[in-house]
Amino acid sequence: MKKTSSILLLLLLTVFLVxxxxxxxxxKELEDEVNKFTSELESKNNQIAANDAEVAEIEKNIANIQxxxxxxxxxxxxxxxxxxxxxxxxxxxxEQSKSLFQYLQVSEGxxxxxxxxxxxxxxxxxxxxxAIVEQLTEYNDKxxxxxxxxxxxxxxxxxxxxAKNDELEKLTDELEAEQEKIxxxxxxxxxxxxxxxxxxxSARENLAYYKNLGCGLNEDIYACQFRIEQANNSSSGGYVxxxxxxxxPMDSGYVTQNWMNAGHLxxxxxxxxxxIEVHPVATGTVFKIYYDNCSSxxxxxxxxxxxxxxxxxxxxxxxxxxxxxxxxxSFGNIxxxxxxxxxxxxxxxxxxxxxxxxxxxxxxxxxxWNAGGGCTWATYQKSTINPRQxxxxxxxxxxxxxxx
Length: 404
Description:
- It is built from seven helices and 14 strands.
- The chain is an alpha+beta fold.
- It has two domains: 58-187; 189-402, Glucose Permease (Domain IIA).
- Strands 3, 4, 6, 7, 8, 10, 12, 13 and 14 form a nine-stranded antiparallel beta sheet that branches. It has a three-stranded antiparallel beta sheet with strand order 5-11-9, with no helix packed on it. A two-stranded antiparallel ribbon has the order 1-2.
- The two termini are 30 Å apart.
- 28% of the residues are buried.
């Protein structure tokens, strides 16, 4: 019974480790894909150029709007100053009018107006004095009316400016949202996405690689590659020992983002130790060590310089699986073609490239877009595997694990 259980477990493990999305591809099919992909990428490159021009125009419009908003603020400040000065002058004229008007009032049984009038030396002087009081009163009334009208006009203008400011702020938000959408379309917000130029270069190099390898036109390139590389133990690909099992890439940590969450091609892992050692998830050979093309000048968010990336090729039941480790703060003492095990330190977790915080971005794929990986970037995106199928991560997000 124990022997039967062991055999069953071995069979289940074998099935579990067979890669998914490993559709056979011949050299002719790869050639057709590269030609099609090249044409699509050239078109995409043109679209990106158009997007860049549109973003530049949006940025110009935003700058113009901000200039208008600044002018509105200055004009509003002037209006508020004029309103304050006008209200002050109205208050002063009101006090003057009040003093003049007191001459027309009877106070404590005495007629102040009559006192002023009858203080005249003669009839001419009296008429003169009466006229002055009336003129001053009328003048103050006229000035206060003009000032009140100015305050009302300024208040109306302030409301107009406030409405215009709100309109401009809304337009700015709309333009910034459109800019973000265009930037997202351009950058695709993929953490390990190569540039259009890199994709074109690698697609052509991949095709040349399999032709030089000697694969037949209608031969499965993956089977051809595995057979020849394993037989020759070539330095270009290197002998890839069988993966005995899969492990977590860090001694402890937690998952922060799952595979295919909003198009996420891998799984994100983090740790309170922001530079914890990173290990291969299985035995294999170092396939590629490089810096991705992302920098603050060509990526739209959270860029901290070009990301350090390591790719490892694993032999799983006679087929290759590739694991990618991105955003490393440093590389380990490794080189391309070197055999590594789950105990090898390939680097340390970091925050390089388009990253908003220290983490490890881990991808598992059945092919790779770099030369010798057997696919274009378009196919690469479809070849990703949920790392949870191979590695025992906790089921939830931010659930801590210890041990590999």
